[in-house]
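3.2 Worked example (two chains)
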Amino acid sequence: RLGLTVFKAGDPPPGQRVADYTTEVETADGSVEDVPFEIYTGVLAKDAALQAVHRRARLFSVLYIEEARYIEDDDDKWFVFMLWERLPDGRRAFAGYSTAYLFYSYPDRISFRVSQFVILPPYQRQGHGARLLKAMYADAEIRNAVEITVESPAPGFVALRDTVDARLCREAGFFQSEPIVWSNEVYSQIRERLRLTKAQARRCYEIFKLASIDMRDEDAVRVFRQEVKLGLFRQHFLTGSSLADTVPEDAEPGTVERVRADEERTRKEQLQQMYDEYVQHLISVHGRL
């Protein structure tokens, strides 16, 4: 349990408890038992005890998150969410944590940004990530945040977020009846109800849209492929720059055309690879719902 069983029996961790649940865990002898977990939250700058625990726990973000850095925990816009296992003797074992930052959103609301998110290896693939993320979403709802964003998400977190958001969309009735369509009106409803960004709401649409398509329907597959590729192109290739722009004026005739042709071929290959990988991701996420 990595040395962070720091609280004596009967002493709760610092912060405010916002969630508790039990999960089935297989023991060493092969039996299954219900293990209780708790999630506590608070403002780092306003709770010295919580800040002290965070300063011990933050090492894990550097160990498990690429390019992670320590946050300024004396800024009162930083919140932390701590996940604890409640041991049989009443102590707590540290299982993971996440941080969030509150931004001003015109005219009188806030934007809730998820920053660091760590579930320790012994607790991974047990549903704790989804529980922790949903606790953050509930907090954002209480604060009437206009939307929830994520800072530089790692691939593993992208999959977790997509799964949680798709489940929330399903529970709220979005994209559950034919025809499954995307529109600004649908997005506005999702943003108001679930606080998802436009890009994230669109990903949820694509998860359910792909699952609804009969792969024998070539026209439907083609339309979906074109829609997704257009989005990927806008996200990754719509920069306006080209290597052809750097070709010297005294270059051999046809050099610019050859460079542009090579760029176009490479772009098409990369776009197809991105599409194939993204489709597999969508299928994987829908399979976890």
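3.2.1 Second chain
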Amino acid sequence: MRLVRFLLRYYPPGIILEYEQGSQTRTRTIDLLDLTERSNIYELVAQLQANEPLITPSKTDQVAKLLLKLQSKLSSPDKHHYNHYKTIRTHVLPVTNVSFNKSGSKFVSGSYDRTCKIWDTHKGEELHVLDGHKNVVYAVAFNNPFADKIVTGSFDRTAKLWSTETGKCYHTFKGHTAEIVCVTFNSSSTLVATGSMDTMGKIWDVETGVEMASLQGHNAEIISIQFNSLGDKVVTGSFDNTVAIWDVETGHKISSLIGHRGEISNAVISYDDTLIGTGLWTRVARCGL
């Protein structure tokens, strides 16, 4: 294995290691949820080196600088005041969804006009038009923190994988029998998950475009889908009033969270994978293990 670079994650605090193994580029995430203003940085670096062979002694100062940057961010008071920044006339028909890259320098928009567009946030300039869907583009997502790929989901029952830099379409994911309404990447950007009105979720290989698993078990439309931080599980929320947890490798349902009396509008996982939060159309929110 050869370390390529470190990526910094401000919230929740962590470091992502990008490395080469054979001919493939992989990532490994180190969560730093216990990092505080009083943490001894060099003691923490020593702990990381004891558990992570990619962090060699030659990288000590570099990792220490990254941790100090994270520590400084944690200790900075939150004095943000949010004001209207810019209005961008993006599409000729209504916009369905938007997604930012990690830095916020770019965003992608989806629309009823069947296209997606990539924008320079600060200049308000259109960078690329992602043209190829045959119906409404409803769901869009960057593969953060890398932000070099975008996945889109459409009412034409397909999802597409695009290059952020060129606008080229890498793959068209076919297999759903109804509208795709939610899409997401795993944290290492090796898999895409899609959820559909056909009551199924699907997992796709980013490199080959091949379907890896089909998540079957909901009795109504899947409205939200998300990987956990390790990427070995997927959580789906459905109009059947339940949330399901799935094994990524096998596609088998691990468990169902029942008890809601209304349709699920969203389901999200906490960054430490200990909690799942759900929202309902009935104006109720829940949080549980």
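3.3 Remarks
The mean pLDDT is 92.
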